[in-house]
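Re: the multi-chain job from yesterday

Posting the exact lines I submitted so nobody has to dig through the queue logs.
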Amino acid sequence: MNEPQKRISDKALSVWRMTGAFSSVIVAIMAGGVISLSSIFSWPVWIPIAGIVVAILHVYLYVYLFPLLRWKRWRYEVREQEIELQQGIFVVKRTLVPMIRVQHVDTRQGPLLKKYGLATVDVSTAATVHEIPALPMEEAEELRLFISRLARVADEDV
Amino acid sequence: MSNSKRLHPISAVTNFFKQLKELIVPFVAFFVFGTRASEGDLWFFGGSIAVVLVVLGIGVLNWLRFSYRLEEGELRMEYGLLVRKKRYIPFDRIQSLDFSEGILHRPFGLVKVKVETAGSSGADAEAVLTAITKEEANWIKETIAQAKNTLAEETMDTKVEDIVEENVIYKISFKELLLLATTSGGVGVVLSALVAFLSQLDDFIPYESAYREVEKMISNGVVIIAVLVFLGFLFAWMVALIGTMVKYAQFTVKKTEREIIISRGLLEKRQITIPLNRIQAVRISENILRQPFGLCSVHIISAGGSVRNTEGSKVMLLPAVKRVEVATILGDHLPISTPVLPFNKLPKRAFPRYLIRGSLMVVPVFIAAVAIFKLWGLLSIVLFLFSGIWSYLKYKDAGWSIEGQQLNIQYRSLIKNTLFMKKHNVQSLDYKESIFQKRKNLASMTSLIKSGMGAVGGTIVDIEKEEAKEIYQWYSYSRKAPF
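And the result, structure tokens for all chains:
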């Protein structure tokens, strides 16, 4: 299959792993709560075990597996006439956004992305918003200018 | 161009009723859940009267504070009770003016004017003059039209016609009105309202002694009960029937050079105008009750409307007509054609997936039923039969076709829908393929179009992969094949 060519920054992996780790900490705290509760009220032994399993599984999935699969899948390509995106972990989704439908382009950057020198590009049509996550800052900036220039050329009504 | 004017005083009354309508929910909640203690009654009564008086006062003050004028090519409005607001709308931003007449308007020859603007800021996309005289409304309409025309003549060389030609495309017949009313889903609503109402009357109706009577009656004969229940249903059905007929009476669709004008209603006349260039898609819906009659309803999905008011984004164009006649009625009046086509159907191997998806929704209900009702819960196995039939219909009805620059998608939720859209109105297209679909060489397609401020999508699930690629290819603007 002829997929879109460009990948997003490999630093995206680290960003996603960080956010995954944050949520894992929360899950671990909840699991800890369940374990201590079950020792206080002497609940059946499978409950704390389940808590531990869930916590470990969460770390494996959200810190290791999902970010990796997600990064491997993420592709994009910006052509004269259209933007093509590919994403998804279990469901591969490919999206076409024609240039003449693009209304505006934004770049944005949270604290985590900033730390890694990354930015996210949002492409908005009259009805939908499409996100290209975690591009190197200069590349995001270039892309924004590039798309907005092409989109202006292709002006037409909704 | 004109002095500032007030609305007709009746608008204070309509304001009052509108506010009161919003208060009805808390009032009903109070009535339903409120205390039954007799000492609370006086407070409740006095409080209600105070609230009503305050609301009336606010309605009058709002009317006093509202003024409008046409000045320097703008519709200028000033209003606001505590915060004074000024709103100036340039004529050339005004998309359309819609006149409607409520029950209160009609005796005084008044209309409510809704000003639809091309604003993109959502909530501000419209302004309303609650009640002005018909002459005044027509004068405003003409003034704006003239101003726009001179503007157009200045900028372009093309001469704009002074007289707007109106073609009546469709007028509902009595037979269609009757069919529409009998097959509308309004019966359920009326019925549940009736039940809710009756259940609140146990203070006034001595149910206990009534039950004793009923017991006697049962011993006398079940027939009477059956008749009573039947009469109840018949009553609910009649109410819904008349309600729908009044609402959709005189349903008329007109077309001018640049817009579609729909008007309807017997007691309350409503009118809605859709500029042709705001039309994004046409949807034909066939509900289960209407399908046997070959009837369908046609909606226009337009880019109009606002966040607060979604009415403008999905507008009923034809309430109940024969599916085969749609194309004849609409002809080439719309930018989108609605032919009856042979649709490309789904491959047979998609059917099991539809069946499984349908049953998966029923499984939790089944398990819960067995857990709670034990053996009797097994009866809920019937649900699988229903979900099976429904899945089959969904599978059978899904389809797609491409006609030049137009994509048509057919799918069923509860209602069978057919969505017709032009390529340049599709905002984006998604091709999806899950792990399980990949194994069977299937895929899903979603095309998104603008509707009001949001998006609506037409999705077909489990289409042949090669066909999905074909649609994707068709939508792609680049010469290079994406697949």
